[in-house]
Amino acid sequence: MSDTEVLKALQAALAAEHAAVYGYGVVGGRIGEARRAEARAAYDAHRARRDALAREVRERGAQPVAAAVAYALPFPVPDSATAVRLAADLEERVAGVYSDLVRASEGQRRRDAAGAVREAAVRAVRWRGGSVAFPGLAERAGTAAATPTA
Prior knowledge:
66% of the residues lie in helices and 4% in strands. The protein contains four helices and two strands, in the order H-H-E-H-H-E. The chain has helices at 3-30, 36-59, 80-104, 107-128, and strands spanning 70-72, 147-149. A two-stranded antiparallel ribbon has the order 1-2. The longest helix has 28 residues, at 3-30. The termini are far apart. 37% of the residues are buried.
């Protein structure tokens, strides 16, 4: 793959991580006490991946895509049950974007992206209580990343 394609996939993954961090802010505000630590761990994991991706984009001589001021949520999140649903949705969206990075990369970058798909898939299973055959692929059909709103 070309450096341009890899950079484009890195920027898309970074944008997805920005959206996930925002989304977990909403999840954290609505989630029940029993799952709050799980939400915090996911939030921290997405922040760490976001920061690592931003560093990698800068190391490639590009300006990292900035986070939007706000993001349109895929559905209203008034309570703990919908917060759990949002968390699963966020993880599935992130897995889809990382699957693009797996396709665009090779070597260590590809291994890291595959690890990110796996981590997001595991979190999605924990949130949703079930799994899909090919995380980041099948469920991605017709699902776009969280949409920024200005």
